[in-house]
Amino acid sequence: MRMIGIILFVAFLTPYAKASEYRGFETRNGVTVPTVIVAPDHPRAVAILFTGGSGTIGIQKDGEIRRGGNFLVASRKKFAQNGIVAVVIDAPSDQTEGGSVMNDEFRDSDEHAMDIGLVIAALRKTYSLPVWLIGTSRGSSSVAAVAIRLRKGGPDGIVLTSAISVEHKRGGNLLDMELSAIRMPALVVHHVDDGCHVTPNYNASRIRDGLTGARARELIAIKGGKTKGDPCGPRSHHGFLGQRGKVIKEIAQWIAAH
Q1: Which domain holds residue 27?
Q2: What span, in angstroms and rounded, lies between the C-alpha atoms of 218 and 109?
Q3: Assuming Cys at both sites, which of 46, 108, 109, 235 could form a disulfide with 85, CB separation 3.0 to 4.6 Å?
Q4: β-strand partners of 65
């Protein structure tokens, strides 16, 4: 199986970043995983950023992101400012055909893990740097599931932000996963006033405590900021509104230390 990275778009950004580029990764047969990459001049690590919700953000071949309001997607330049190559990842092509979305069954599948494993391998070849996975909300469900499955060729570390921890019909509950099987360093980041019904703060410590096999584990509790509208939306404590710069800086520092 071959991995093909196609750079189709380059636009100069501010001095901290070399360029923003579209790159499509060929993974499973006939499947392409679209990404947009923002790279700083002197990176120290690579981070693949997993959005929440449907996992579909509409990355275009000209580098446009149609649905870019998610906390991690909107913070991609902040990662670059902190020395991290930000790789914003979209749902694979077979999960967006015919208007479908990436559901939790796919997030917790061997196919998803295979896709991400191949993207990790290609990014390691390109940058010769550690590759981390960072998810938010349902994106954290993807990150945890992939980290559990990829015993070989997996990420160098993971970050779980605003992670799902309540049983519900759509799935994705990290507390139902075999978190003890995760071996790499694992950081949990949660807002103390997260008002989303499936990501209560009182379970953040349970997620951290379940990572018994991780080489390092920690919970960072975030306070303050703003909240507007949907408590599960990006413009809320769930999406770290008003505190995103602080959150990204702390994540980057933790990555550098581990």
Answers
A1: 5-257
A2: 26
A3: 46
A4: 59
pTM of the model: 0.91
Q: How many residues does the chain have?
A: 258
| Distance of alpha carbon 106 from alpha carbon 78, whole angstroms | 29
Tokens 């979209």 found at: 90
CB 65 within 8 A of CB 38: no
Residue carrying structure tokens 């080489």? 215
Between CA 90 and CA 87 the distance in angstroms is 10
3-class DSSP assignment, residue 176: helix
Burial class (CB in 10 A: 0-12, 13-18, 19+), 186: buried
- Cβ atoms of 167 and 174 within 8 Å: the answer is no
DSSP state string for 68-128: --SHHHHTHHHHHHTTEEEEEEPPPGGGTGGG----HHHHTSHHHHHHHHHHHHHHHHHH-
Q: Kindly report the CATH number assigned to the domain that includes residue 114.
A: 3.40.50.1820
Q: How far is CA 132 from the centre of its chain?
A: 9
Q: CA-to-CA distance for 86 and 64, rounded, in angstroms?
A: 15
Residue 81 and residue 200: Cα distance in Å, rounded? 30
Instruction: Tally the domains of the chain.
Output: 1
Contact 161, 169 (CB under 8 A): no
Q: pLDDT per residue over 129-146, tens digit each?
A: 999 999 999 999 999 999
User: Is the pLDDT at 1 greater than 50, yes or no?
Assistant: no
Using the predicted structure, report yes or no on whether residue 14 has a pLDDT greater than 50: no
Distances (CA, A) of 197 to 51, 144, 167, 202: 18, 20, 10, 11
Amino acid identity for residue 96 in this structure = T
Within 13 Å of residue 1, how many CA atoms lie on the same side as its CB?
Answer: 15
